[in-house]
Q: What sequence folds into this?
């Protein structure tokens, strides 16, 4: 995880050209990590086991600060790459109070043919109490979440994306490591980070 985080930080450093974004980046570099005890309390509160790669990242840096986009999942070559900032552990807990705080099945909102479009790794929910949001686009219309209740084809702790308007969920990556690898690859293809 150290290598991927170092690669991320170097890519961010190299791709930032705007002074306001540079200030956010400098603040991001100063963020402290989360103590092991805080991670354990979080896990007990939500009855989950955070993936070790995520724990390692957060022991070093507690989020990225609002507006400092550090994750770029998708496919930059196809022009489908979205910027996300990492929430602090406290922001994750605050967001969880109103987002994915109840279970809502897709069939309550969608027809069977629409539900068939759901990626096979995800159970047919629109909101699930076993989903934990950890990253967002500024404004909160799209979230990246850990899925701790995957479908049979999925993986415990996989990354899914919740998109608002129209609300739907999509599979993003098998792990935080895979997400970071994808993001770093996309960042390397961008000419510059622009908001």
A:
């Amino acid at each position: 995880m150290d290598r991927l985080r170092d690669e991320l930080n170097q890519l961010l450093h190299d791709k930032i050209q705007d002074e306001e974004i540079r200030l956010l980046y400098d603040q991001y570099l100063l963020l402290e990590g989360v103590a092991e005890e805080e991670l354990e309390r979080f896990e007990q509160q939500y009855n989950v086991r955070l993936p070790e790669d995520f724990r390692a990242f957060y022991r070093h840096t507690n989020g990225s600060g609002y507006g400092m986009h550090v994750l770029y999942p998708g496919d930059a070559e196809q022009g489908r790459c979205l910027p996300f900032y990492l929430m602090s552990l406290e922001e994750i807990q605050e967001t969880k109070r109103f987002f994915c705080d109840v279970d809502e099945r897709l069939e309550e909102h969608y027809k069977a043919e629409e539900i068939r479009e759901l990626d096979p790794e995800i159970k047919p929910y629109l909101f699930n109490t076993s989903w934990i949001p950890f990253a967002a686009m500024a404004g909160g219309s799209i979230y990246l979440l850990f899925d701790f209740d995957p479908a049979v084809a999925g993986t415990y702790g996989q990354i899914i994306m919740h998109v608002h308007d129209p609300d739907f969920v999509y599979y993003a990556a098998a792990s935080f490591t895979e997400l970071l690898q994808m993001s770093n690859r996309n960042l390397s293809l961008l000419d510059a980070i622009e908001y």
Notes: The beta strands are 74-75, 80-81, 85-86, 104-105, 125-127, 131-136, 142-147, 158-163, 168-173.
